[in-house]
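Re: the request from the purification team.
They wanted to know what the chain is likely to look like in 3D before they choose a buffer screen. I agreed to run a prediction and write the result into the notebook, where they can find it.
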Amino acid sequence: MSSKAKSRGSNRARLRKSALPLAGLRVLVTRTRKQAGTLSTMLRKQGATVREIPTIEIRPPQSWSQLDEALRRHEDFEWLILTSVNGVEALAARCRKLRLPVRKLNHLKIAAIGPATKKALEKCGLKVSVVPSEYVAEAVVEKLQHKVKGKRVLLVRAAIARDVIPRQLKKAGAEVTVTEAYHTVAPASSRRKLQSIFSNPQLWPHVVTFTSSSTVRNFHELMRGVSKDHMQNVATASVGPVTSSTLRECGYRVDMQAREYTMPGLVKAIVRWRRNVAERAGS
């Protein structure tokens, strides 16, 4: 191919990218390093320039004893609830460690908090009975509260989590066992990276994405020492109402929130926000 043809092809590619809805937008993704890729890919397909700086890192719980004991007596339970992909992965890993075929859990009725969790469970060979229409703890409770009276329920979740599900299901007459499958920490290396970005206005993101309350709290902690004034010029994108509530608790605005509490829903929210900003600027 001649240099002129290469140049024309390169120009066409730049023109195509400049026509994308998020062209020229710098987006900071705060998900775990392992999980950031899916969101980053979707954003790049819309033309965004993406920087990944994880504010959470998934670690094993202090002890596996609770989860292992629950898995050993899995036949005692009638319901299993998973609230994240991380919980599914921990469950599957402990089953392997205990030499317990995951399919043996299929006698349980299984509830997943959202489509990503459901997909992870199905990948393990498990059948999901319930997925709420909104992917928050309150919606899980609404779906299950009339199904679990007198039933034994196993809830697999993060070490630190809201108690909405166990508290409300116990009120509905269920016997709930809560087991810790993982906990989250703030990666120490991310503090330096965030401070480096926010020390140079030319590198500031236009949007920071938050996909859980943990990403918000850890971002807030990692940003200590960075002037809060910097965030006045940066928009926040929240995956859902619980994350939005945590943003407000930490003193941040919520500039956009996904209508569907998923990664595709979050990308759509950013596209809508960008379009609205452009319309206001043109009016």
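For the purification team: Residues 59-185 form a domain with the Rossmann fold fold (CATH 3.40.50.10090).
Please add any questions underneath this entry.
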